[in-house]
Amino acid sequence: MRKLIVLINGVLVLGVSLVILEGEKVEADSAEARSKVSASFTFSDTIGDIKPVDPINPDPSVPGNPGGPSNPDLPEEEIPVGPGTGSNGDGLLKIDYVSNFYFGKMEYHPLEGADSYAYPETWVTEDGEKTTVPNYVQVSDLRANNKGWNLTVTQESPFKSGDSELQGAQMSLANITSQNISGSQNPEVSSGEQVLKIGESIKIASAKATTPSNIGESIGVGTNIIRFGDTQTMKESVKLHVPSGVSVIKDVAYSTSLLWTLNDTPL
């Protein structure tokens, strides 16, 4: 006798014969009631400070702080430049941290000029352990509109010591890389060596806004690290060049101010 296979209401029945009995019909009365309500909330513009993270191993859950320039030739108390700062405070688009640049002491030759490189940043863990990391900028975009952003830097004035101005000295930033630590795509960075010019805004990094052509992309949203160098190149990524034939004053400190700007204005 042939086997008969019948699928009834999703149940596979195997057998040599099949008898279907008509049983009593069972009817059940059903009732249903529905009510629709809403759930809502509002984001506040006040997020509070976002702490800097280790630029090499960025993990917000691991406490630590930048410790300023790392100079193995000077005791910490003799380094004239401390940790950098950030804009922070209220708002959803903010600069969390920017390193200060310290070039130390330069040997200047009137016929050849001189080059010097900024010391890397120091990272200090919660336990006080110190490591050397690249100079960096940390920015956060916590807005929900994915409007994108631009990070620029402007050298506001020449290097000066009191009323004495150092003519022709030029800073440059190189080996720029970026890392987003919030699950978004990495922002774009300017390639090659970026030479700073007095009073001129130089773009360092940017994140594209969401448009109809890139809907679904998330670029530079959340917290981003912009590094100058890595563990191999961090000692040669922030450069100061003083040309030959410049009048210099020995054993005095020259300094300038760098203005970092983060906005969503198209460049």
UniProtKB/TrEMBL annotation:
Pfam families: WxL (PF13731). This is WxL domain-containing protein. Residues 30-266 form the WxL domain. Residues 64-73 have a biased composition (Low complexity). Keywords: Plasmid. InterPro entries: WxL_dom. Residues 49-87 are annotated as: Disordered. It comes from Vagococcus xieshaowenii.
